[in-house]
Amino acid sequence: MLRKLFSKATQSASKNLLNNQTLPTPDISRVIKTAAPGYAAPISDDEADSLASDAEQAIDGLSEQFEAWMRRDLEALRDTWAEAQKPEATAEEYRRLYTAAHNITGAAPSYGFPAVSRLSRSLCTLLSQTAPGENGPLINLHVEACRAAIAAGPAGDASHSVADAVCDALERRVAARTAQRA
User: Considering Cα of 142, then 144, then 145, then 146, what sign does the dihedral take?
Assistant: First the structure.
């Protein structure tokens, strides 16, 4: 089907080239409006300081929410892990666990938790090669390491070095485990 569509498109393009017809430039002015030219007066240093202060306060307010969002994501990871640990767990429960870990992988760096992102990425790698009922202890170590890293708070020197050591150890274990399956 794609081959037919591609054939038609290339034939149509060839006809246009053969006929030497130029296509008119579309008028997009109805869709994209340009700003009317104007003069914006420069702001004073006091106004700039005030804007900067407002921006910092907004970021501080969001950073408080980041921890709450991270804890919510961790709760989802722990809940899906609890479901995946049940004897009747299926591939669907493991898919949900993978999705929860994947969501954390993407969000954690933005929330100031780079180690949690690294841990959940390692968990995703492990889960992509795990059938239901396999690798339970190693999965549990990842989930608990994520919990500990979130409890330690956003990126800081002391918690960061400990988290890096844990990440290194878990990533080596995952690499060894997935190499065995290959």
Answer: positive
The alpha helices in the chain, defined as continuous H runs, are 2-18, 45-84, 91-111, 114-127, 136-151, 157-181
* CATH class of the domain defined by 65-181: mainly alpha
- Nearest residue to 160 (alpha-carbon basis) of 170, 171, 148: 148
d(CA 24, CA 11): 20
Per-domain boundaries in the chain = 65-181
Distance (Å, whole) CA 116 – CA 144: 11
Q: Name the residue among 136, 142, 105, 146 with its Cα closest to residue 123.
A: 142
Query: What's the pTM value of the predicted model, to 2 decimals?
Result: 0.64
pLDDT tens for 94-114 read 999 999 999 999 988 888 888
Phi, psi of 26 (to 5 degrees): -70, 145
